[in-house]
Amino acid sequence: MTGPESSGKTTLAIGLSNALGLPLVSETSRDYLDQKFSVDCNFRYEESHLLEIASQQDRAEQLMLAGSHGRVICDTDLLVIIVWSQVRFGHCHPLILETFARRIDLRDRHYLLCDCEIPWQPDPQRESPDSRSELFALYQQKLDYFRLPYTVMRGDQPSRLKHALEVLENSRPH
Asked: What are the tens digits of pLDDT across the range 38-53?
């Protein structure tokens, strides 16, 4: 999954994982930031924190892939961290970009780009309620730049899940 904040990525990822019986790689940034905020309610993340989050996300994906015969559902991946970093800090650390480039060359991927036409759900970790359309365009631009296959997910959650199941069945390696 990829796309702007509050675009239904987690709901769709959980639905796909359950429907397909595939392992789910969760978004590690949530736990990381929750832990930081629990220690210091005034915590503000910096670029160095994104390096740690990216490392944890990549490690979680690689561990899950190793035990799953190569098919997993990812609630998010390094692409989200790349966009997040570029929006927040104006650039992305080269280590994150290099790791992402290596990973996309190793395995087939198909991204489900969630649009932002569903209602915003407030969350203390979300930052951009008014720029979801711009963020959607940025995600689409990055997918095109890296020449990654993707399908845009539109409509309500049941429609998205049905469409995603069809897409993944048709993109499955035979």
From this structure: 899 888 889 999 999 9
Q: How far apart are CA 15 and CA 125, in angstroms?
A: 22
Bridge partner list, 166:
none
Among 83, 63, 64, 84, smallest CA distance to 72 is for 64
**Rounded distance between C-alpha atoms, residue 153 and residue 160, angstroms:** 6
Q: pLDDT tens digits for 103-160?
A: 988 778 999 999 988 776 766 665 666 788 899 999 999 999 999 999 999 999 999 9
Question: How much is the pTM?
Answer: 0.87
Q: Are 82 and 96 in contact (CB under 8 A)?
A: yes
Q: How far apart are CA 38 and CA 55, in angstroms?
A: 21
CA distance 9 to 6: 7
